[in-house]
Amino acid sequence: MSKDYSIPNLTLDERDKQILSLLHEDGRMSYTDLGKQVGLSRVAVQARIQQLIEAGVIERFTAVINPAKVGIHVSVFFNVEVEPKFLEAVALQLEKETAVTSLYHMTGPSKLHMHGIFQHEQEMETFLTKKLYPLEGVVSVDCQMLIKRYKSRMGMKL
């Protein structure tokens, strides 16, 4: 089942953008503290955030976890070429995998771009040989292991 990524009919004003920017920096900031920073009451901030959630501007609130601190040391980017008629089925199967953190259909000859995290190289190898390669329609897989992270996009800044 595909998610709806259409742009909602919501016009963001400067206060909405300020609220989003502050939440981007600290998603746990209280409505009261947000209100003080943007010049609105706690109730007004709460109402605006609820509107942003209902419009799909805010998709979810989450914790950003440092993978290395929880024993996940292998971060890999995959380019997976898939026969066009199998693209949707392969994507639906891969999105179920817990190791897969992001999955995108990219331009080009039926490419899926995917990021996965693993505790160690053997876990990645098992993922490749037992889960990815056997999928019907997979033509080729190109892997690139992350050496050092300089910047990671978490959400988006306005």
UniProtKB/TrEMBL annotation:
<dbReference type="InterPro" id="IPR011008">
    <property type="entry name" value="Dimeric_a/b-barrel"/>
</dbReference>
<dbReference type="InterPro" id="IPR011991">
    <property type="entry name" value="ArsR-like_HTH"/>
</dbReference>
<dbReference type="GO" id="GO:0043565">
    <property type="term" value="F:sequence-specific DNA binding"/>
</dbReference>
<dbReference type="InterPro" id="IPR036388">
    <property type="entry name" value="WH-like_DNA-bd_sf"/>
</dbReference>
<dbReference type="InterPro" id="IPR019885">
    <property type="entry name" value="Tscrpt_reg_HTH_AsnC-type_CS"/>
</dbReference>
<dbReference type="GO" id="GO:0043200">
    <property type="term" value="P:response to amino acid"/>
</dbReference>
<dbReference type="Pfam" id="PF01037">
    <property type="entry name" value="AsnC_trans_reg"/>
</dbReference>
<dbReference type="Pfam" id="PF13404">
    <property type="entry name" value="HTH_AsnC-type"/>
</dbReference>
<dbReference type="InterPro" id="IPR000485">
    <property type="entry name" value="AsnC-type_HTH_dom"/>
</dbReference>
<keyword id="KW-0238">DNA-binding</keyword>
<dbReference type="InterPro" id="IPR036390">
    <property type="entry name" value="WH_DNA-bd_sf"/>
</dbReference>
<dbReference type="GO" id="GO:0005829">
    <property type="term" value="C:cytosol"/>
</dbReference>
<dbReference type="InterPro" id="IPR019887">
    <property type="entry name" value="Tscrpt_reg_AsnC/Lrp_C"/>
</dbReference>
<dbReference type="InterPro" id="IPR019888">
    <property type="entry name" value="Tscrpt_reg_AsnC-like"/>
</dbReference>
<feature type="domain" description="HTH asnC-type">
    <location>
        <begin position="12"/>
        <end position="73"/>
    </location>
</feature>
<protein>
    <submittedName>
        <fullName>AsnC family transcriptional regulator</fullName>
    </submittedName>
</protein>
<keyword id="KW-0804">Transcription</keyword>
<keyword id="KW-0805">Transcription regulation</keyword>
